[in-house]
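Posting for a labmate who doesn't have an account.
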Amino acid sequence: MRLITLQELITESRQRADKEGSGFVQNTELIGYINKSATKLYDLLVGAYGNDYYAETVALPTVNNQQYYDLPANFYKLIGLDYMIGPTEALTLKPYQFNERNRFRIGTYWNAITGVAGPRYHITQNQISFLPIPDGVYSLEMHYVPVCPKMVDLTDTFDGINGWEEYIILDAARKMLVKEETDTTNLEKEIAAIVGRINQMAENRDAGQSFRVTDVRNVDGYSFG
């Protein structure tokens, strides 16, 4: 984790654009540039290099005879959904496609055990649904990536992980120069360099192990069919 404040991003963006004393771009506009650039960096990390950056976990208990549940207000991408069947035991739930919606209404069970087909989930807009419809209260844990937080106050922070906030600074500086109709060639080269650095370093956070193919049929030892 490497936090940088919105005030620091404003200051460094102006420095890189050589606009420290200029009022051509007011801070209110620059903050908009910075937030848009932050979302671009955020998507670069969570979209292309796995979802472990910025991940969160929340409890999602079911309600008897309720199929649909609101997703967290800051929900962006689902990483995984666990059905907690005991203090130390969990089942990895799988999704169903919309055209499979009637397949899992019967023949699947929430009190599933090994060898019995378990419940499935489906995400639609801002809700998640379950089939079969829960017949009681069951404990679920949702692992997800939240949306990129919007910085408003000067003390708000962004986690640049390992100095990758440089992308935000350079991109915001570039936008200032674009508005001024000034050449952005040097900043474009620096942006390409930082993207190359991220491409090289961001993908595997576990430097001691390489990625491998996942056994999707037996991700938790229970292997729902």
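Reply:
Got it, the structure tokens are right above this. Helices lie at 6-17, 27-48, 166-180, 185-201.
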